[in-house]
Amino acid sequence: MPAFKTIDDLGDASGKRALVRVDLNVPVSDGKVSDATRIERVAPTIRELSQKGAKVILLAHFGRPKGEAVADMSLKPIAIAVEEVLDQHVAFAGDCIGTAAEDAIAAMNNGDILLLENTRFHKGEEKNTPEFAAALAKLGDIYVNDAFSAAHRAHASTEGLAHYLPAYAGRTMQAELEALEKGLGAPKRPVVAIVGGAKVSTKIDLLSNLVTRVDALVIGGGMANTFLAAQGIDVGKSLCEHDLADTARQILKDAEAAGCAIVLPVDGVVAREFKANADNETVDVNAIPADAMMLDVGPKSVEKVNEWISKGATLVWNGPLGAFEIPPFDTATVSAARHAAECTKAGTLTSVAGGGDTVAALNHAGVADDFTYVSTAGGAFLEWMEGKELPGVAVLTAA
Ligand SMILES: Nc1ncnc2c1ncn2[C@@H]1O[C@H](COP(=O)(O)OP(=O)(O)O)[C@@H](O)[C@H]1O
Ligand SMILES: O=C(OP(=O)(O)O)[C@H](O)COP(=O)(O)O
Question: pTM for this structure?
Answer without folding.
Answer: 0.95
